[in-house]
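User: Okay, second chain of the day. Same drill as before: sequence in, C-alpha cells out.
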Amino acid sequence: MRVILGAGLRHSCYISVPVVDLTTILAGLGTILPQERILTALEDLIPYSFDGTAAMSHRPMVVAFAQTTEEVSRVVKWANESRTPLVVRGSGTGLAGGSIPTEGSVALVLSRFDRVLELDRRNLTLLTEPGVTTQTIFDEADRVGLLYPPDPGSMKISTIGGNVAGNSGGLRGLKYGVTKDYVMGFELVLPTGEVVWVGNKCVKDVAGYSLREVFIGSGGTLGIFTKILLRLLPRPAAKRTLLAVYAKMEQAAETVSAIIAHPIIPCTLEFLDRTTINCVEDYAKVGLPREAEAVLLMETDGHPAVVAEEAEIMARLAREQGALEVRVAATVEEAQRLATARRSAFAALARVAPTTILEDVTVPRSELAGMVAFVADLAKRHRLRIGTFGHMGDGNLHPTFLTNEEDEAEMHRVEMAFAEIVTETVRRGGTITGEHGVGLAKKKFLPQSVGDLNVQLMRKLKRLLDPNLILNPGKIFDCPADSSNASP
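Assistant: Same drill. C-alpha cells below.
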C-alpha cells in the first residue's frame, strides 16, 4: 500500500501478513457478527477509508461493527488465526493517519460502544465505553460539578477510545496535562484475543510495571480498549479569560515565560499568528485585531480570589512585555467568544485552500519564539502560505500548510519545508509530535526524533504482544519479520 500525506511524503506500509481474500474474511466474520453489522459495498467502505489527515486514504476490505467485549475478542482471535489485519477506529478524527486502513484489512468500528457506565462521585471516577465522545464525558462530569480536563480540538466528535489510543492533548494541557494523566485503568483486548483489565480506582498503585503507560498512546497497535476508567477533578469555582495583542511574536513568547516564572500556571496559554488571526476573523468574526502579529489567549481558573489576582498579574505582565492591548472578558459570553477564536483556528484555515495540512511539533518553551520565526522564514523561502497557532504554554506548535495537493510543484515545496521543520524541531531539543501521534504520517521521521535504539525497543514490544502483526500494522514504524536486522 502507498499513501500520500498532504505534504507529498510517500510511505510504504510494510505488512508481513498475506492478504486474505474477501470470501474468507466474510466467512470468518459471519460466524461472529450479524450480517447487518458487516459492510462490503463500495459506497459503505468509502467513509471508513480516511481520517482527518490530509490526502491520505485507503479502502478496507470490510467494515465491521462490534458492540461487546466478547465480540471484539472473538474478532481479534479470528483475525490472529487467519492473519487478517485489523484497524480499529472510532470517529476517525485523527491527524496522523493512525486509523487509515491497510492493505487487505478489516476496519473494526467501535462507535457503538457508546455508554457511560458509571460516574463514581465518592472516588471521582467515570467508567466509559470507548465510543463515547469526549464532549459527552466532559458534560457528564460537569453535570455533577466535576471536571474532565483533556479537551482536544475535536472533542465534540472525537471518541475517548481514540483519545486514549493517541494520548490526546488540548487547550488545558499546560495546567492539567493530557489524556494519560486521567486514565486510571481500562479493559483491553490484546492482539491475540485475550481480555485483560489494567489499573484500578486507587490513587496510589505501584504494583509491578506501569502497563497503562505501555498501551496509552500506542495508536491501536498493541491492544483495543473496550472500557476506560477516567479520573475526574472538582470543577473550578471560577475562571477568567484574557486576550493580549502583540506587534511581535517574540513579545507573546516572552509573556508566557514571564507568567510561568512568576510563577503562575494558567489553564490555557494559546496563540495565533497573523495569518491565522485573519482567517479566523473571516470565518468566525469574533473581533480579533487583523493588524496584530500575534494574539495570546490566556485563561486562569480556581478559587475566585486567586483567579482575580492571577488575571490581574497576567494582564500586567503582558503589558510589560509589550502587549498593545489586553482584553479581559467581562461576561461568560465574551469569554466564550474569545475561546472560539482559538478553537476555530483549524476550521478557519481549512476554508482558505483546497488542501489543509495541520502539523504538530513541540519544542521547549524557551525555543518557541525562535521556532515560530523559523517557520515564518521557511514559508517565504519556499513560497508557501503557512498559518501557525498552538499551545504556547507547553511549546506545542501547529504550522498549517494552506496548499493544493493537485499542484505537484507546490506539494514538493511543502514536502521539503516540512522536512526542514522536523530537522529544526529536533535540533532545538523538540519532538516531531506533541499530541497528534506518529501513525503513518510521521513514521519516517521517528528514528530522527527518538533514535534507532528506541525504535528497535518499540519493535520488540510490538512483536512480543502481537506476534502475527495483525493489529494496525504499518503504523508508527514498520515491523518486518526479522526485526533484529531491520533498519528503522
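The domain at 116-234 is CATH 3.30.465.10 (Uridine Diphospho-n-acetylenolpyruvylglucosamine Reductase; domain 3).

User: Thanks, on to the next one.
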